[in-house]
Specification:
This protein is 57% helix and 0% strand. It folds into 3 domains: 1-56, no CATH class; 64-141, Alpha Horseshoe (Serine Threonine Protein Phosphatase 5, Tetratricopeptide repeat), CATH 1.25.40.10; 161-255, no CATH class. It has helices spanning 2-14, 78-85, 91-104, 109-121, 125-136, 143-156, 160-173, 181-193, 197-211, 220-232, 234-250. The radius of gyration is 18 Å and the shape is globular. It has 255 residues and is mostly helical.
């Protein structure tokens, strides 16, 4: 049913009807800056009313992101320790506890990522994305959030351009020492399946170096899914990879 609703909204978007990027309901006008149902607004230039969910990050290409130092660990927070016990058995409670932590530490990225994971597991793609966008506006560490957004747009929305952009932004956001090995992993396999194997091997080597606890890799199914998605729009994907490779090399992100 949810897929049918999403598909119907996408059809409506093609004829000019816009939706709230938060609750997904129809806006009164195409130029609305606030939803009349959930009352959330998007007067900044990061979130704007979407043509379907693909429009949630329209200006991401023009944004620069930089991680700030943040050494906090989930074990330091009782709410997150409790949330772990509900991660598989009671996802709603898991989400609720993480949301409570967000209220207490709004600049800490991990609760946003956990809420996104919980919402995605429940099939709430829209909610899993909007909580991450919220985190982009206030967290100290942004690379993990950008990487998670890349995953959502690659596998849930199937937006190759936006996902490659997000993985690249996640890499560029990391200040020495690098901390997010997963964005390098995804970018590595995107390069490999776009026939830029040498660049892919460099990114894979960096990912394993960051992880530092032995060999680390994406599972076979994830690799297969990436390959299939890239093959569906191979030429466009190649041009995107070339574009971001040039930027990453210029910024010494693949050394």
């Amino acid at each position: 049913m949810k897929k049918l609703v999403t598909f119907w909204r996408q059809i409506l978007s093609y004829i000019g009807i816009k939706f709230c990027p938060y609750c997904g309901r129809e806006l009164r006008t195409n130029k609305s800056k606030q939803c009349s149902y959930c009352y959330k607004s998007w007067h900044n230039n990061l979130v704007s009313p979407s043509s379907g969910i693909k429009g949630l990050l329209p200006n991401i290409k023009n944004k620069e992101f930089h991680d700030k130092k943040d050494s906090r660990q989930p074990e330091e927070f009782d709410l997150l320790v409790s949330a772990k016990t509900f991660a598989s058995d009671n996802r709603n409670e898991f989400i609720n506890l993480c949301n409570e932590q967000i209220i207490l530490t709004p600049d800490y990225d991990l609760p946003y990522i956990w809420v996104s994971n919980g919402q995605n597991a429940l099939g709430n793609t829209n909610d899993s994305i909007t909580i991450l966008i919220k985190g982009l506006g206030c967290c100290k560490k942004l690379s993990g959030i950008l990487n998670k957004l890349g995953e959502r747009y690659l596998f849930e929305i199937i937006d190759i351009e936006l996902s490659i952009t997000l993985f690249s932004k996640a890499i560029m956001a990391q200040e020495p020492p690098r901390s997010d090995h997963v964005s390098y992993l995804y970018f590595a396999y995107i390069c490999i399946y776009s026939d830029y194997g040498n660049a892919g091997k460099k990114a894979l080597k960096i990912a394993r170096k960051i992880y530092g606890l032995g060999d680390i890799d994406l599972d076979n199914k994830t690799q297969f899914d990436i390959k299939t998605i890239i093959e569906s729009d191979y030429k466009r994907c190649q041009s995107l990879v070339i574009h971001f490779l040039q930027i990453l090399i210029e910024q010494n992100r693949l050394d």
